[in-house]
Design goal:
Low-confidence stretches: 105-111
Strand content: 25-35%
Order of helices and strands: EEEEHEHEHE
Structural class: alpha/beta
Largest sheet: 7 strands, mixed
Number of strands: 7
Shape: globular
Helix content: 25-40%
CATH architecture: 2-Layer Sandwich
CATH topology: Nucleotidyltransferase, domain 5
Radius of gyration: 13 Å
CATH superfamily: Dinitrogenase iron-molybdenum cofactor biosynthesis domain
Number of helices: 3
Number of domains: 1
CATH class: Alpha Beta
């Protein structure tokens, strides 16, 4: 499974819409298999959501996010865990152990 975390100075980026950097993590068996950094090259939220899809991201962990951008992300079938804050490694470890405190997890369902 591949997840991405919007980051800013080793913390979750406070606002996903303005994030410039992602940590992309491949997870298997509850452990990190691979991690790498990716950059957004422009300000287009359409491009940001498209890049997440191109990277085969299944889950996005982020801070605050606009309804518009969350709709784009969810439109690609990406699970969104938003309004999370803290140090990146702490959040990643909490995610891996199912211990994120009070995240808003949203998954678009088809009618």
């Amino acid at each position: 499974m591949r997840l991405a975390i919007t980051i800013w100075e080793n913390r979750i980026s406070p606002v996903a819409d303005s994030a410039r950097e992602l940590l992309v993590v491949d997870v298997g068996g509850g452990k990190i298999i691979h991690r790498r950094h990716e950059q957004f090259n422009n300000d287009s939220l359409f491009d940001h959501a498209g890049k997440l899809a191109e990277l085969s991201v299944k889950t996005l962990i982020c801070g605050a996010i606009s309804d518009f951008y969350s709709g784009l992300v969810e439109g690609y079938g990406i699970r969104l865990i938003s309004f999370v804050d803290g140090q990146v490694d702490d959040v990643l470890n909490a995610f891996l152990s199912n211990a994120l405190v009070n995240p808003r997890s949203r998954q678009r369902t088809s009618a």
